[in-house]
Amino acid sequence: MGLVVQKYGGSSVADPQKIKGVAQRVIETAKDGHGVVVVVSAMGKTTDGLIRLAHEITATPNERELDMLLATGEQVSIALLAMAIETMGHKARSFTGEQAGIRTDAAHTRARIVGIDGDKVRRALDDGHIAIVAGFQGVTEGDDITTLGRGGSDLTAVALAAALRADVCEIHTDVDGVYTADPNIVPEARKLARISYDEMLEMASLGAKVLQARSVEYAKKYGVPVHVRSTFKTEPGTLVTREEPHMEAVIVTGIAHDRGQAKVSILRVPDRPGIAAQVFGAVADHGIVVDMIVQNISRDGYTDISFTLQRTDRDKSVAVLSEVARRVGAQGVTHDDRIAKVSIVGVGMRSHSGVAARMFKALSSEGINIQMISTSEIAVSCVIEDKYTELAVRALHDTFNLAA
Ligand code: ADP
Ligand code: ASP
Ligand code: MG
Hints:
Blueprint: E1 3-8, H1 16-31, E2 35-40, H2 46-57, H3 63-87, E3 92-95, E4 102-104, E5 113-116, H4 119-126, E6 130-134, E7 137-139, E8 145-147, H5 153-163, E9 168-173, E10 194-196, H6 197-205, H7 213-222, E11 226-230, E12 238-241, E13 254-258, E14 261-270, H8 275-285, E15 290-295, E16 302-310, H9 314-328, E17 332-336, E18 339-345, H10 355-365, E19 372-376, E20 379-385, H11 389-399
Parallel strand pairs: 1-2, 1-9, 2-6, 3-6, 9-11, 10-12
Antiparallel strand pairs: 4-5, 7-8, 11-12, 13-18, 14-16, 14-17, 15-16, 18-20, 19-20
Helix pairs in contact: 1-3, 2-3, 5-7, 6-7, 8-9, 10-11
The structure holds adenosine-5'-diphosphate, aspartic acid (ASP) and magnesium ion (MG).
């Protein structure tokens, strides 16, 4: 008998009817003779609602209390799913992150898993139960509840699959698998039968939220086979796996986009050694993660520095930089939310030249101005004006012939 970890996302458990549907699917898997551990997210957009609620109390919620609040969302889903399964005649037991033995560090709202004690879940399985675990949450050594960053139920599922040595980690969601681009934007996008961990990690980091980036990193580290598939259909989806030789034959595997970033600029900074260190040192001291950086050509001994970051960190970053600007004699700080990042991803890029040039040409043919560029071994990203996102993603999908 094998062991399967199945994760169901928020839209898959959005209402009681859907929860009953998931219960049925889980029971079918158990009837096939597998041990089943189910990880569930909060119902629908519950987490967004809880975050809004917190912000109605204060603009800067205490992060320990925010985690306490956010973790309630998943607790609702596990209890309801356990009830649904029991009603259908199968034994089920729900577990919070703490009960499932998911131990994390104390970095509230973005905690890292430091260990998993899977004994309780194993015992439940041995007793013939379906184990249902709350995604997205863990507990610190001091018994404080933590959360694992947005989309963190994917990480719970992968980490449990690794700890319990499951045969596969199935991520059930509202699309049929990983596509060459977000199928909600590009109707002719093609479902990939397989994608390498590295490409998936890059796609996820660059905005393809079908999997949380950290979960892919974890899967790669522990060699967990991840199968992304539909909650509502039974056909196979996409297998995220080790790179296979033929994968390099394809130059571009997919297009990703990210509309959750902002650009922050510090204007007319004195152009002398040590300034960038002061600017980015201050930003890093506040735990803000910077993505792309551009420094303009110096004029009269002054320059502008711009960078992108997650929009949720924008206010904190502007406040920190305004202080730095005063200290170093810069003119001021501005920010722009109307940006998006579009990226092409593919392991084949390692061995082909001219790929970036084709990307820039495709964007320019649509009259889209590129504000920033960054590259890695297997990706090229451009920051553009947000209103062109769909146009850019479709143009790139077309240029690299990704449709079926
Ligand atoms: P869940 O609630 O199940 O975790 P998410 O909303 O986090 O689901 O992720 C699924 C969504 O990811 C899809 O609805 C789709 O819009 C988006 N997505 C973005 N890029 C891709 C891609 N390349 N392939 C499939 N889905 C993608
Ligand atoms: N409910 C959490 C979120 O919305 C975790 C998840 O869905 O994976 O981010
Ligand atoms: Mg998700």
